[in-house]
Design a protein that fits this description.
The model has no long low-confidence stretch (mean pLDDT 87). The chain is 34% helix and 23% strand. By secondary structure, it is of the alpha+beta class. The chain is globular, with a radius of gyration of 15 Å. It is built from 5 helices and 5 strands. The chain has one domain. A 5-stranded mixed sheet has the order 1-2-3-4-5, with helices on one face.
């Protein structure tokens, strides 16, 4: 579901804690977040059989990432789906050109069906306006510390 840009910025700012919680929010539940992450992996794996890998992270503002290898004819393009520790945010990394927009939308739809808010790349690449030393919102919610 696409929202107006302002809605995304409001969500990003509302989930940026003012205390010392740079890595995870104060109410972060690792077990619940990992269950949701694994459910997303299974849903993506169902759509793209034998084409997904996953990993979790530490010392980062994001929980983990799922790599979806999308076939377009003979070409295979890896698409990275990153899951933030904050606000149930997801980021579909379109750094690799190649997959059709329908495949990207499919991945975004699956993430949203699993309860994630897919934040568009153009929003995440805007300058970060919070109290920490991040250059962009992407760095704030989807990077190592």
């Amino acid at each position: 579901m696409m929202y107006e840009d302002k809605h995304y910025f409001d969500l990003l700012e509302a989930n940026d804690p003012v205390d010392e919680y740079m890595e995870v929010p104060p109410d972060f539940d690792w077990e619940t977040a990992l269950e949701r992450f694994n459910a997303l992996f299974k849903a993506l794996e169902t759509k793209y059989p034998d084409a997904c890998t996953r990993s979790t992270t530490q010392d980062a503002t994001y929980l983990g990432e799922i790599i979806v290898n999308v076939r377009d004819g003979a070409a295979v393009t890896p698409i990275r789906v990153m899951i933030s520790n904050f606000g149930k945010f997801a980021y579909v990394d379109l750094a690799h050109k190649g997959p059709s927009s329908g495949q990207i939308v499919s991945i975004e739809d699956i993430a949203e069906q699993q309860g994630y808010i897919v934040v568009p790349p153009h929003i995440l690449h805007e300058p970060y306006s919070g109290k920490y030393r991040f250059a962009t919102w992407r760095e704030r919610y989807f990077s190592y510390l």
